[in-house]
Amino acid sequence: MPDPSVARAGFPVSRQVLADHVYEALLEWLMDGRLEPGAAVSIDGMARDLDVSPTPVREALARLEHTGMVRRVALKGYRVAPVFTREDFAELMEARLSIEPVNARLACSRMTPDGLDALKQAVEDLKTAPRGGTFAEYRSYLEADERFHQLIAAQANNQFLLAAYNTLGGQIQRFRLFGGVGITDAEQAIAEHQAVLDAMLSGDPEKAAQMMIDHVEKVRGRAMADAPED
Amino acid sequence: MPDPSVARAGFPVSRQVLADHVYEALLEWLMDGRLEPGAAVSIDGMARDLDVSPTPVREALARLEHTGMVRRVALKGYRVAPVFTREDFAELMEARLSIEPVNARLACSRMTPDGLDALKQAVEDLKTAPRGGTFAEYRSYLEADERFHQLIAAQANNQFLLAAYNTLGGQIQRFRLFGGVGITDAEQAIAEHQAVLDAMLSGDPEKAAQMMIDHVEKVRGRAMADAPED
DNA sequence: GCTTCGTAAATCCTATAGGAAACAGGATTC
DNA sequence: GAATCCTGTTTCCTATAGGATTTACGAAGC
Question: For residue B152, which of B118, B189, B186, B188 has the smallest C-alpha distance?
Answer without folding.
Answer: B118
